[in-house]
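[job 4471] stage=fold_predict status=RUNNING
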Amino acid sequence: MNNSMYSRKNTARAERLQRRLDAGSVATHYPEVASIVVSMMYTQKGVQKSLPRNVYFSPSSYALFRIDCLNKECVDGGFDFTQVITGMIRNRRVTSKGNLSCEGDGPSADHATIDFEVVIQYV
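[job 4471] inference complete, writing structure tokens
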């Protein structure tokens, strides 16, 4: 790996960490939330088998509801659940289902998608 690529990866990593720190915790922003579970079926173009994946947010988790893309060739990708989750909390909804496409750049357009279900438990 050359120095400029190494430097870009370190810069990106530092920016991700700063975004997490800036987001604060789930408990700080949403004290009424006991847990959030995002269950998804990850599908990547060119791969026949879908991959089940669960991501858990507790009160001590960062209030950053973005989940990284699993495609190793994806650049700045992921799935942003911010609007889904904050809308659910605002309306005190318990479940929501849908699908999202990866927002990143990769080897081809629409390289990864997920079908998801979000379940929130309140205190």
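[job 4471] summary: Residues 24-122 form one domain.
[job 4471] exit 0
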